[in-house]
Amino acid sequence: MRSSAGFFLCSLLLLTAHCTQAADPEVQPDPKTPCANWMGGAPGYPGHNGVPGRDGKDGRDGLKGEKGEEGIQGPKGDQGETGIPGSEGPRGFPGQPGQKGEKGEGSFVHRSAFSVGLTERAPHPNVPIRFTKIFYNEQNHYDATTGKFVCSISGTYYFAYHLTVYLSDVKVSLYKKDKAVIFTYDQFQKNNVDQASGSVLLHLNSGDEVWLQVYGDGENNGVYADNINDSTFMGFLLYPDLDVH
């Protein structure tokens, strides 16, 4: 028994020395030799996948690319709501004057006016005084042959007269449709020239006549006119009747 144990121990020492020499760091053992697989275990199982790593930092921007081709124009959108008016801008410079326009009609389309004077002395009483010196009678509404103003436009009129008195007293009346409306009397003073005047507003209808005449007998017809003294009669339309015109 001692011989067998000694023999086994000797064999083990020899085998260890032989394997130690074979493990020289410069000489790799053959993986197929018995010493390479001596004390080697069975292959292990593959491990699990590791956890994904963190995202890396963004890289630097590259160079700017070339401009692409223009795309097709899209359809017109709906009109938006009106915005709030902006603040007023600065006032501009005055523009050049425009061309002169054509003459328009006046605001008062209806016109009627006359102004006349006396040319003869001592007119006859109880008949219209004929004022034949025409200062203004553009519409011909005053008839110098009869001494009467004939209304053509219904409305409100203003009449006035200024008479020179000489040689005798004067008493005159302004008539409308054969009826005296106002009277004016002036007493003559010897060696003097006096004035008699009067005025009135009247409403006239188309066709009405207005005139001035000496009232009474022939002793009151001192209405006078010469080269340096005038006796005048005038009238004009203030405004027409709105319901007619």
Question: What do these coordinates show?
Answer:
Keywords: Collagen, Hydroxylation, Secreted, Signal. Residues 24-106 are annotated as: Disordered. Residues 107-244 form the C1q domain. Helices cover 9% and strands 30% of the residues. With 245 residues, it is mostly beta strands. A hairpin with a 4-residue loop joins strand 3 (142-143) and strand 4 (148-150). The chain has one helix at 2-22; strands at 113-117, 133-136, 142-143, 148-150, 155-176, 179-186, 194-204, 209-214, 221-224, 232-240. The longest helix has 21 residues, at 2-22. Residues 19-25 have low confidence and may be disordered. Strands 1, 2, 3, 4, 5, 6, 7, 8, 9 and 10 form a ten-stranded antiparallel β-sheet that branches. It contains one helix and ten strands. It has a domain at 113-240: Jelly Rolls, CATH 2.60.120.
